[in-house]
What does this fold into?
Amino acid sequence: MADTQRPLSPHLQIYKWQVQMLSSILHRATGIALAVGSLLVIAGLLHLAAGEESFQHFKNIAGSPVGLVLLFGWSWALFYHLCNGIRHLIQDTGAGYGIAQFVRSSWISVIASIVLTLLVWAYVLTAGGAA
Amino acid sequence: MTAKDLRQPIKVARGLGSSQSGVSHWWTQRVTAVALVFLVLWFVATVLSLLHADYAVARATVAKPWNALLLIAFVVAMFWHAVLGLQVVIEDYVHTRWKEVASMLIIKFLAVLGALASVLAVLRIALTP
It folds into this structure.
């Protein structure tokens, strides 16, 4: 914890829940999760470069139940960070700061990320399962 | 700044601020974000197209010049963006100076190693017949 002794501002529990809290904290949380998930990209590329047996090993792990759960989580984190990231880029232009627009765009980020995740996994399932 | 100061205000403001680097962190985060919007969509589409590909097809796909190029751009932008984002998280939550500096060094070293390893892997695939 901090090595400074100073008064702290009220924390989360004092405020009424609003969707903007969710969209904001999820952006940071998914960002951290994706930074960890980047290890998967490295692993995939290294195993692909290392040879057929090695790549098959990677595919087996990715296609295992634990691997699929992680992939599902990471895919949603990716789509959420993408949707909400685009929302932030739009807000960087100065647009969308009205309270109603801000709330609506928060919901759009959350819902669009879920829809995109379900679409991708529906495609994976109809294409005959993963790995 | 005093009235006697002969320097232009812009000369003083340029490159300063509490981070000593002005808006470059903010700006680089946005530039990599815009790049990643396109690169992530391309990456997801490419991975989905390889769902049932065997090893030779997967390797040949990565070895195609455009795919190799975009894949390298993707991993570099991804690790760069990740470091910029994690840096803000560390600055926000790690309030003990030596822990803050140590965490920053660790994530930067890991990100550079990750980016180099990924680029090297793509090059091995692309350049090995």
Notes: The two ends of chain A are 44 Å apart (CA to CA).
